[in-house]
Each structure stands twice: as structure tokens, then as C-alpha cells.
Amino acid sequence: MHHASDILLSLFIIFVAAQIGAEIATRIKLPGVVGEIAAGCIVGPSLLGLVVPNEPLEVLAEIGVVLLLFSVGLETRLDDLKKVGRSALLVGVLGVVIPFAFGSLWAHTSGFDWSKSLFIAAAFVATSAGITARVLQELGALQRVESRVILGAAVIDDILAMLLLGVVVALQAGGEINVGSLLVVLAEAIGFLAIIGWVGTRVMRSKSHWLDRPANPLSPLTIVLALCLGLAFLSTKFGLAAIIGAFLAGMIASETSQREKLEHQTQPLLALLTPFFFVLTGSKIDLKELASAEALWMLAVVTLIAIASKFAGGFLGALSLGKRSASIVGVGMVPRGEVGVVIASLGLTAGVFSPRTYAVIVAMSLLTAMVTPPILAWQLRRHAVKPAPDETAGPA
Amino acid sequence: MHHASDILLSLFIIFVAAQIGAEIATRIKLPGVVGEIAAGCIVGPSLLGLVVPNEPLEVLAEIGVVLLLFSVGLETRLDDLKKVGRSALLVGVLGVVIPFAFGSLWAHTSGFDWSKSLFIAAAFVATSAGITARVLQELGALQRVESRVILGAAVIDDILAMLLLGVVVALQAGGEINVGSLLVVLAEAIGFLAIIGWVGTRVMRSKSHWLDRPANPLSPLTIVLALCLGLAFLSTKFGLAAIIGAFLAGMIASETSQREKLEHQTQPLLALLTPFFFVLTGSKIDLKELASAEALWMLAVVTLIAIASKFAGGFLGALSLGKRSASIVGVGMVPRGEVGVVIASLGLTAGVFSPRTYAVIVAMSLLTAMVTPPILAWQLRRHAVKPAPDETAGPA
């Protein structure tokens, strides 16, 4: 009975802190999500200590970000993604290669041996689609061509990051790299995405009238929520992030005639659950480990490399859209968020990182997540909406 | 990464099992909630073992039932409850006294000493408002006078059960009963309910236009969700169940002009989260401990006493409404659900119950929860709606 009391208090504090943080951020013209992350840092263990991340809160956060990416998927059609396929692929690949190269160079010149350096560099790689998606959604910019490139690139990015992580973990453990098994993993992930994305959308397009039948006992919302949870689980089975599966589920559901109603019904779910993700993300910044000039200097360098290299990858990859759009894409790819945190945790457990390196990598991930939203918001407001070009077709 | 995968699989299985269970139950004319509990029993550890209750799932279940009682509160006004105050009080008191008396008599004649018998009897007492509320809501019967009596009585029941639990735990531990401190606990709980209920509704009635102002940055849904989590927490601090606070929050929110919109927005939250409560409830039935003629016989006797004594309390208490309504109230008070489970767990931990007694008490709690919904649904369909009388006023 007492335990229920503690957890309810945490839920209340997180929920209210998120609202206050978002409100303050909005008043000073920052995206609400920045305020939610900052609120998490304040109520978290390193300052007020009102909220301590634990397993139930992590699960709520996970459900929150899964639903967020589901709702982003609801606003995205496969055909729209296909139109920007080439740019997205280029952004995804360059956005992994450049940060990985610069990250490992920095780590090696800082005195880590090569196998550790590659592990550290892996934390520079994976873009967190959650943060960017939330900003794009807050600003109603999900229909812009840059948003589609970013979302498509985030999927590719996730596949490459997964492969890379497999490689560096194997190297660190002193194992050999089995190119054959890596190719199998790659093929499985791509196969999963292709089959679910392609078949799912096609089935939904031709069969979605079934959802509207009055004889159908389940509401469309129930069916798509089951799809969302199921694909989120399946994508973890293929080594991908749960949010990729949730995004796919949303994209499939966007083909139904019920799309608008579903978007509407998803709102209360997002209102209740996404704050847990952003507040918990913020609560993981350990300010104490960073309270030295040396640590802060390391953090500054790491963060700059992380931002510059990812921006470069996104910018170069999207250059065919023009410089302005390319710089929006570059900025949109910058946030690392929870993926960097996960890799840093792996490194800490494996003894690759010292507590300070861990704190720096986590803080870097979260700093990239905090600086991106205001810049992205400013860029999107400044540049007018650009219609999506069609890269698949010849002269239309 | 792997762990996220496991929990997502559990979420998916629970959600889908609930939908399938509810659908089958509806087809054979049972309330959906019976199907959800049965589905939990099937996917739970004692049969398929696909879902094992753990802390994150318990928290989701708790949030689910909190939101359920919040939504029930949204359909209930304080004035409506006041009108049935006298009947509700009588039902609440008799519904505690009679089951407690019969429960302790049975336990004592079965060979337990008096202090253990009183502990066991405490598990006979507390009505689980969640199950009944869900059936009433499924049937659209929350506006009926019987529903109001049941909901009012559930609040009183919870106060008394809390006091009783304090007494039996103290007795069992060999301590003395301090009447003074019990009175303080009682006064605090009643004071909490009265102040929140009375002041909250009044403030909301006079200030709810504030929610509609366009300058208000937070949506009404966000504000009432914060209220719901906050009062759920506070009510645990006053020794009451979290769902009592959530019910109060809903009742307060029902005074706003936004009530209908809020009801609408709560639906997707209920669709996602309440299945976790009912499936988890069902998953706790340990069929293996019950697989002997002796255990089954004990279960049958205990369940019969639990049902008959609670029905008698509710029926006698509500007799002023007429026999038909009184029998609806009597049946509506029968489910014990999670409260009996909690008391049984306390007893197991304290060494008062053997594993079999524990399994029997848990199974009894859940059996009462499973047999009630179909009977209640049948009664409500059979008897036409009865308008609520006004017990506070003289000749209206």
C-alpha cells in the first residue's frame, strides 16, 4: 500500500513538473520539450531528488515515446517517405559515418586505445528521433520535405547504429567480426522494415473499410494500439529501437479512412504519457560528475564534435534540397537523446568508460537534445514551407 | 535493450488478450470485464505463463484503475451522492459489519485462533469499486440511483476497511488497540474526503470558466489529470485507496463546463490502460494451489459466505429503495477484487496464512469479482431505470 503511494507521488511530480517546464519554455519562445527535459534535470536525483528513475517509470517513458512516434507515423505516408528516399538514405549514411569517424579520432587522440575509441564513437552516432519528432509536431511541420527526410534518415540511422554497436561490442570483447553474420542481421532488419512497411500499407489501403464496419466489435483505436505495441516489440526483436516499429505502425494506420479520428484519439494518450519520457531523460543528467573544469571542458569538446559532425552529415546528405533545407535537416539529426545514454550505460557496465566519461557522454547526448529544439524551431519559422519533391519519378 | 523487448511483449500480450477476452465475453452476453479477468487467468503464470505480474505492470494496472474511477467520478455529481447519503452510509456500514462477523465466525470454527480469524475476516470486507464501476459504466447505468448508492457506499466501505485493517494488524502483532489513535485516523480520512469533496466542487463550480479562457496555456485535460494523480496520491496518504482520490478528482471535474469533452478525452486513456488492471487481476489466480478437493471445498464455502454476507449488508442497507433496488445494491457490493488480494498478501507475509489459505482468499476475491458482473448486468437490464430520490430535502 505504501509503495503505491510513492509511485503515485512520482507520477504526480513528473506530470506537473513537465507542465510547468513546458509552460516556462513556451513563454521564453523555446519548444515545450526543452522545458520538460530541464524540469527532469531539476526534479531528478542530481538536484532536488524528488524523482528517482526506476523500472516502472522507465516503462511509462518507453510507452510515452512509443506513442509519440506512433502519432508521428500517423502523420506520415509511405509514399511521402519514398519521394525523399534518396536524400534520406544519404543523410542516414553520412550522419553515421562522419560522427563515427570524428568521434573515434577524438577518443583516440584523447588517449583511449582503438577498441575503446570505437566504442565511445558509437555513442556519437545514433539520432534520437523522439526529440526531433516532438519539435516538428509541436510546430506542425511534419508535412515539410525536411521532416520527411529526417524521419526517413532516422530509420536508416537506427539500422546502421545497430550494426555498428554489434561491431564495437564484439571488438571490445576481443571477439572477431563475422561479416557474414552482420550481413544477416542487416538483411533481417531491412527485410522487416520493407515487409511491414510495404505489405502493411498495402493491406491497410485495401482493407481499411473493414475498420469502419459496424459489425466490427473492436474500435479502430484498439486495433491500431495493438498493432503499435506488436510492431514496437517486433522491431526490438530485429535489433531496432521500439520507436521504429511504433513509427511503422502509425504509418500503416495513416492509410486508413480513420486517420483523423485516430490522430484525435491519440492526443490524450500523448498528453498523459510523453511527459514521462522527456522528464526521465532530463533526470539522468548527473550534474555532480560534471562539476570540475576538466569535465566541463571535455563535455564542451565532445558536444561540439557531436553537433558539428552530425550536422555535417545531415547537411551534406540533403544538399540536393538546397542549402536552407539541408541545414534544417542537419540540425534535425543532431539530438542523440536516449540512444547515446543506452550506449554509455553499456560502456559503463562493460568497464570501458570511467564514471566521468559516462557522465560526459550522457550529458553530451542530452545537451544535443536540448540545444536542437530551439534552433530547429527558429529555422522552421524562418523558412517558408517547401513542398516535397518527387525523387522516384522522372519528369512528373 | 533486451529488457525493453520483454516488457513490450508483455504489454502486447496483455492488451490483445484483454480484447479477445472481452470480445468472447460480450458474444456470450457477459460483461467484457469478465472476459478480461478470465484472459488474465489464462495468460498468467498458473496456465500459459505468458505474462508474469511484475512491478511495471502493477504500476500500469494501478494507473488504469485510477483512470477508470476518475472517469466514473466524471459521471457523478456530489449533489447526486448527497441525495442518497443515508442509504449509502447504511450500505457501507452493514456491508462491512456483516461480512466481518460471518468471516471471523467461519475462520474461528475452522480452527484458527481469534486474532488470526479477525485477520482473515478483514479480507472478506473491502468492496472493490473498480469491477462494479466498470460494469455500471459498460451498461450506461451510472446515473441510476442504485449506482450512486453503491459508489457512495464504496467510499464509506473503504474508510471502514482501512480502520479494520489497522485493528487486525495491531491485534495480530500482539499490540494494543489505541482507540484514540484510531479515532484520529478516522477523523483524518473523513476530513480529507469532506474538505476535498466539498471545497473542490465549490471551487470548480465557481471558477471553472477559468479552464475555458483562451489565455490559459494548459488544456483542461492536463489540469484534471494532474488533479487526478495528485488526489490519488493524497488519498493513499490518508490511508485510503488511490482510487478513492481519483473518484473525487473526477467528481470535482464533473462540475466544469468541460465535462463532456473530458469524458470524451478520457476514453482513449481507458482503452489503453484499464485492460492492464483487469488482466493482471486475473493473472493472480493461482490454480495450482487450488487443485485439491479440500481446497476447492474451502474455496466454495468461503466464496459463498463472502457473497451472501456482503449481499445481505447491501440489501438490508438499501431496503428503503425497495427490494429490487436493494438487491441490485447488494449484488453491486459483492466484488472484492484487488483489496482482498492485498490483505491476503499482508497475511501471507506476516505468516498468518498458509499458501493454501492465501490462494483460497485470493481466489475468493477474484471469484466474487467474476460472478458479480453477469448477475449485475442481468439485474440492471431487467429492471427499468429508477430516478434518484432526494433524501436530503423534505417534500420537494
Automatic annotation (TrEMBL), chains A, B:
Q: What keywords are assigned to this protein?
A: Antiport, Ion transport, Membrane, Sodium, Sodium transport, Transmembrane, Transmembrane helix, Transport
Residue stretches spanning the membrane? 59-76, 88-106, 118-137, 149-173, 179-203, 215-234, 297-321, 333-352, 358-378
Its primary localisation, in coarse terms, equals membrane
The record's section on Gene3D superfamilies has: 1.20.1530.20
Q: Name one GO biological process term.
A: proton transmembrane transport
Q: Which GO terms describe its molecular function?
A: antiporter activity
The Cation/H+ exchanger transmembrane domain covers: 17-379
Q: Which PANTHER family match?
A: NAPA-TYPE SODIUM/HYDROGEN ANTIPORTER, SODIUM ION_PROTON EXCHANGER (EUROFUNG)
Protein name as annotated: Transporter (CPA2 family)
Q: Which organism is it from?
A: Tahibacter aquaticus
